[in-house]
Design a protein that fits this description.
The structure is a single chain. By secondary structure, the chain is of the alpha+beta class. It has a single domain (about 15-235), classed as Lipoprotein localisation LolA/LolB/LppX (outer membrane lipoprotein receptor (LolB), chain A, Clam). The chain has 4 helices and 13 strands.
Length: about 260
């Protein structure tokens, strides 16, 4: 080969894209970094307690409980009022929102039931992803939060697309981006995962910071405690009773005697 042809060949090869990182390597690396598929599937129940804030507007404590298969119970208290979301793991879910006029326990809509799967799935979208109908593709390698990361596209069985960024060094999840329904509209949404800690041999992020790019919508979740394989009754995941409102303060009559 002449020198000119050799240089041309080098230039041509350099212009070709590098082989894509194996998607199976990325996913298996992430599952191993979390603790391994056996430990993930060994979790039968889970309870997360902590605080959640929505920018400077509101914040309060929350409790999230999950039980196989796909049962979920969540309570969030804001301004002394508690929002409840429950799914029985089969075919029904309920929401109690005390901030609505004439609040009562209402069944989840069809759209809410379709979306509840991702919240209730213990294992996440990557364990047995083919059986779940998820399609996963490698996109590229780029920097995220100052670290090299693998960007992965996930298309679920409903056709919804989201993106995940995995730390190329630790294999843990750095970021998720997709859409989220807020006030009836689908908004771009992104979440960043921090402060991974080990609980019973599994890694969990204890801080999740989220926002809708280009808006003032933000959310910050701080887990204070994560418990696994604790007793949770099935009744916890059936239609909830609305919380009993606190008694209204009693105003004494104007002519009542004052205490000494």
């Amino acid at each position: 080969m002449s020198r000119r042809l050799f240089v041309l060949a080098i230039f041509f090869l350099a212009a070709l894209p590098l082989p894509a990182q194996s998607i199976e390597d990325i996913i298996s690396g992430y599952i191993a970094a979390r603790g391994g598929v056996e430990k993930i599937k060994a979790v039968k129940t889970e309870r997360v307690t902590g605080t959640i804030s929505f920018g400077a507007e509101a914040d309060g404590p929350f409790i999230l409980e999950r039980k196989r298969p796909l049962k979920i119970h969540m309570e969030l208290t804001l301004s002394g009022q508690t929002v409840i979301r429950v799914y029985n793991g089969k075919d029904a879910g309920w929401i109690f929102n005390p901030f609505l006029p004439n609040p009562s326990v209402q069944p989840m809509s069809e759209g809410e039931l379709q979306n509840i799967f991702d919240e209730a799935d213990f294992d996440g979208p990557f364990v047995d992803y083919k059986e779940k109908g998820n399609k996963i593709e490698f996109v590229d390698k780029q920097e995220m939060l100052g670290r090299p990361a693998y960007k992965v596209r996930l298309t679920n069985k409903e056709g919804d697309v989201s993106y995940f960024y995995f730390d190329a060094t630790t294999s843990l999840l750095l970021k998720w981006e997709g859409t989220r329904k807020i006030n009836g509209a689908d908004l771009p949404w992104e979440s960043f995962f921090h402060d991974f800690r080990e609980v019973n041999g599994l890694k969990y992020p204890f801080l999740i910071e989220s926002d809708a790019p280009g808006t003032d919508q933000t959310q910050r979740i701080i887990a204070e405690k994560i418990e696994v394989n604790i007793p949770l009754e099935d009744s916890r995941f059936e239609k909830p009773n609305p919380p009993t409102p606190p008694p209204a303060p009693v105003t004494p009559p104007a002519d009542a005697p004052k205490p000494n």
